[in-house]
Amino acid sequence: PRPCEFYKAGEGELENSYNNIPAEYVLEQNHPNPFNPTTQIGYALPEASYVTLKVYDVLGREVEQLVDGYKETGYYEVEWDASQFSSGLYFYKLVVSSVEPLQVGNYFSVKKMLLAK
Fold this sequence. Notes:
Elements: E1 7-10, E2 13-16, E3 26-27, E4 38-45, E5 49-57, E6 62-71, E7 74-81, E8 88-98, E9 105-115
Antiparallel strand pairs: 1-2, 2-7, 3-4, 4-7, 5-6, 5-8, 8-9
C-alpha cells in the first residue's frame, strides 16, 4: 500500500494515526493519474528538511512551484490545480536538502503525470 493511505488529510499536511516517523524519503505517484484538472501529490520526510516541489512541462520548463520551504518530519500532500494548463505530459520533482550545516541535497525524485482534458 501507498504510505499515505494510512493518514488523514488536514490542512495540506497528512497526520499519522500511528505516530510513525517515515523511514525514508518518498515521493508518491500523483493521484488520480491521468487527472483533470486537479491532482494530489504526496511525499514523506524522515527528518526536518528544506523542500522544493516543482512541476515541469515535457520540454523541461518549470511551470509551477508547489512547495518551497522548511518542513518538519512527516507526511505531506499538496494539490496541483492545472486548469490553466493544456493537456499533456508533465513531470514533478521533489528536492530535499538537509538543514544540518555542511550538508547538501539528501534526496531528489522525479515522476510523470498526465493531464487529460
